[in-house]
Every structure is written in C-alpha cells, then in structure tokens.
Specification:
The chain has helices spanning about 1-5, 15-25, 40-50, 60-65; strands spanning about 10-15, 25-35, 55-60, 75-80. It has about 80 residues and is of the alpha+beta class. Helix 3 links the parallel strand 2 (about 25-35) and strand 3 (about 55-60). It has a four-stranded mixed β-sheet. Helix 2 runs parallel beside helix 3 (about 40-50). InterPro entries: Ribosomal_eL30-like_sf, Ribosomal_eL8/eL30/eS12/Gad45. This is Ribosomal L7Ae/L30e/S12e/Gadd45 family protein. Pfam families: Ribosomal_L7Ae. It comes from Candidatus Onthenecus intestinigallinarum.
Length: about 80
C-alpha cells in the first residue's frame, strides 16, 4: 500500500499541507498513521470522506515518513493527482 506513496513523484507530507491540498482538489489518495494524534488524523479522514478520496491507515508515523523519503515521522501524507 505504501509503495504507491514511495513511487510517487509528487506527494504532500504533513497534516496542514495535506488539508490545504485536499481543499484545492490536488490529492488522489491520502494516508494517515494509526499512532498519530487522532485529533489530526480525524480531520484528514473526514475531509477525504467528504471529498470521496481514498484514505488509508498505515501502521506508524515512522513508516509513513520513511515511505515519503524523509528522516522524521509523518502523521499524514498524500499522492497528488497527475
């Protein structure tokens, strides 16, 4: 599941940036970490539900950060539309 995020040339990392990109209609698929703060992930998941965009949960923030190619953990990330 994270392979799509790892292979993506255009991605958005971070809750704030992802929410902005969702509102702008630039996201094709979103990912949230199960061990992240529910206050943050629920906002992303609700927005994805409202916009009918697939949102997948991943095991950890660390795994999500690694899939994005960054050295820190990430609560949310998304693949941008082409």
């Amino acid at each position: 599941m994270l392979s799509e995020l790892s292979d993506a040339t255009r991605r958005v990392v971070g809750t704030k940036q992802l929410l902005r990109a969702l509102d702008a209609g630039r996201i094709a698929r979103a990912y949230v970490a199960r061990d992240a703060d529910p206050f943050l992930t629920k906002r992303v998941m609700d927005r994805c539900y409202d916009l009918n965009i697939p949102c997948h949960e991943v095991e950890s923030m660390k795994a999500l950060g690694q899939a994005c190619g960054i050295d820190v953990a990430a609560a949310a990330a998304g693949v941008q539309r082409r």
